[in-house]
Amino acid sequence: MFENSYGVAATDEGRAKVFGKDFAAWARPEDGDESIWEDATDGFSPGPKGSPMPPRTPLLKAVLEDLREFEEPVEEGSGIKSLALGALDNSFLVGDKGIEVVRNFEHGIHGKGMSVKFSGGSTNFSTPKKALLMRAETNMLLMSPATDGKPHAKGVHQLDIETGKVVSEWKFEKDGADINMRDITNDSKGAQLDSSESTFLGLDDNQLCRWDMRDRRGIVQKLVSATESPVLQWTQGHQFSRGTNFQCFASTGDGSIVVGSLDGKIRLYSKSSMRMAKTAFPGLGSPITHVDVTYDGKWILGTTDAYLILVCTIFIDKDGKEKTGFSGRMGNRIAAPRLLKLNPLDSHLAGANNRFREGRFSWVTENGKQERHLVATVGKYSVVWNFLQVKNSHHECYQYQEGLKSCYCYKVIPKDESIVASRFMHDKYSVSDSPEAPLVVATPMKVTSFSISSRH
């Protein structure tokens, strides 16, 4: 497998060539420093009955004892394509015909609000592949892929949610030349709650940058009278030499950035520099299709077609201080990652062609709070892992494994059709009798909320 993945023999020299000396633990996990994983769990509250970790029980029974389900069909013919979760009053279902506004409740999202139809704009406006909430969730940026089937976009439409109108169409431009972007995201994990936010991050195959929506001419042109689109201002960033093949990215609570690549590498950039990665984790042979990071920047979840990879960014510097790989070079005390996989039966039932998509942490935007669960989509399955259990080095899954440790303890939530998105609502919706905010699962024709009860 090593030879097939990397094209070099599975010898010490071959491993050193692929991973480098700093990442010896990725090639030989048994020689890695497991104490990092243990140290990282010290700050957690005790599990049941005072134990430092939750016990292993089938399919996370202790955590997901009672799933209360609330299902609601979407508007006829709308066909959900993506989900934009809000942390305030509303969330948004983005479909072929427009955007449905739904209400956020402690038991999930439901209740039809207004429906915003796609209209306006000097160009053909296809169904957005990305919807990004901004400015205390009063505005939304909509990015549609190019018409030739490529995932890249030439600009974004700015939707005023309160009026339901597209108020501006922005172009991506640098040094007078039009450029494309593959993805956009907020400046930081909680930036969509900031009413004054005017910048956001952009990613292309070989570019990482920050865009500014404050027009230097002082006027944002309205679409109804615009002869040309206002140009987004490139305020910070770097165009890399060909070959980085960036695919996806995410930001931490303080604005540091993690980027996943086609070659499987995961790069960490501090909030102050997009030019040089502080840390670059090697690939394991599979492209990273989606990446997420905890609010504190200590944990990264990368998604590949066949598995999720959980990376710990914590290291101890030469002065004995704990840091993350976003703020310094990690050196050679790097722990081996954990892999999250489906067992063979579930993998078979999920379907041969179904791949892992969009592995995410549950959603917190407050210092000192820790994410509790991980969720990913595989075909008609929404798959949930207990974050604490995955990190526990004494967890039964890991006892007799060699090589990189894989966790197969999860909860499967099956649906009747392929799932578009599975995401946990904001932590403020985790009520007193629940250990977690509701999980929202969207399929093209319905949206389901699962609230997790711990009454038992």
From TrEMBL:
<feature type="domain" description="Vacuolar import/degradation Vid27 C-terminal">
    <location>
        <begin position="83"/>
        <end position="400"/>
    </location>
</feature>
<feature type="compositionally biased region" description="Acidic residues">
    <location>
        <begin position="31"/>
        <end position="41"/>
    </location>
</feature>
<dbReference type="InterPro" id="IPR040458">
    <property type="entry name" value="Vid27"/>
</dbReference>
<dbReference type="InterPro" id="IPR013863">
    <property type="entry name" value="VID27_C"/>
</dbReference>
<dbReference type="InterPro" id="IPR015943">
    <property type="entry name" value="WD40/YVTN_repeat-like_dom_sf"/>
</dbReference>
<protein>
    <recommendedName>
        <fullName>Vacuolar import/degradation Vid27 C-terminal domain-containing protein</fullName>
    </recommendedName>
</protein>
<dbReference type="Pfam" id="PF08553">
    <property type="entry name" value="VID27"/>
</dbReference>
<feature type="region of interest" description="Disordered">
    <location>
        <begin position="30"/>
        <end position="55"/>
    </location>
</feature>
